[in-house]
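Incident log, structure service

09:12 report received: a user says their structure output differs between two submissions of the same chain.
09:20 pulled the input from the user's history:
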Amino acid sequence: LFYNDDFEPLFVQDVEEMTQSPRGTQSRFGTATVFGNNSFYVRVMNQSSETMRYHLYIASGNGEFAEPDPHYTVATPADASLAISVGSYNSRIEWTNWEAITFHMLEEEIGDLSSFSNRGPRIDEMIAPKITAPGLGLISIRDDDAWGGPPFGLILNPFVVSNSYADGNTSGGLPADYLYLTGTSMAAPAACGSVALIKEYAPYLSREELVELITDNARSDGFTGEVPNFDWGYGKLDVEAAISELLSADEETIENNSITVYRNFPNPFQKETTIKFVVSNGNRKINLDIFNIKGQKVRSLVNSTLNSGNYSILWNGLDDNGKRVSNGVYFYKVSSENFTSVKKMILMK
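09:34 re-ran on a clean worker, output below:
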């Protein structure tokens, strides 16, 4: 029901049948004809006997809430369980176009989350976005078939950038085959290209391992705060750190030529996680221990002599006394003679 400022009913919205996703979340949509540039109140009625949580969205774009909540706005297809959803942060707020005119994004700050970047979580509280990447102020190529010129037109003209701008030239001029672009539609390709670089170096990585590598090595700073969170996901994409971890792992494997330790999956986890390692030279005494952030050992998972092979060890979040540990950061250490590998994991409930 729609109401005016006096809370008098104006009209009823036409509501479609309820639909349900495979995850169990339900949704329905409706349409209504609204006349005039006025304020309205919407009443949502719970016709069940249970207390229910709901989210209300405006889909048409020709209206807005008086006090909108930016969260729970990561939409399809970024909310898919296997998607690497990407938010945007500001990498450039000033640029000079091909006519040597300098423009500024006055309401944005370099390094901060872009105002248009959708916030999580997903409706079922899954973290989304997974990662953030530069999305405001990227210089990309201009397609003549899509945006021809000169002349470039009133709307496009401010965003056309000279070819020499990349070399620091702000005097403008032609040729001008580049554009100043903004959007999560720029952040997502930046993340996709980063994954391609990682896969070029390590083509054997699975999708799950790629996600862990990216999220484990994401940057945090004064803008992101403590991560993971529902605005930034696991932080800012850091390709150099991700590839450096692969290089470090390769050096460790070559040097020891005996044990390779992989990242646990899933990470973060809620109920249980799997730790994988490979023993190349068998008949070795192996220890796998879990430590809390204070350095206290909470669980011993392996303490035995192992033959060569692949090992997958499950940790269910219990300590040596069978008691469930609290949320937070934990470390798993695989050790043997002349070998130690320590990696971080996060338990979230």
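09:41 both user submissions now match this output. Likely a transient worker issue. Closing.
09:42 reviewer note: The mean pLDDT is 88. The CA atoms of residues 88 and 302 lie 42 Å apart.
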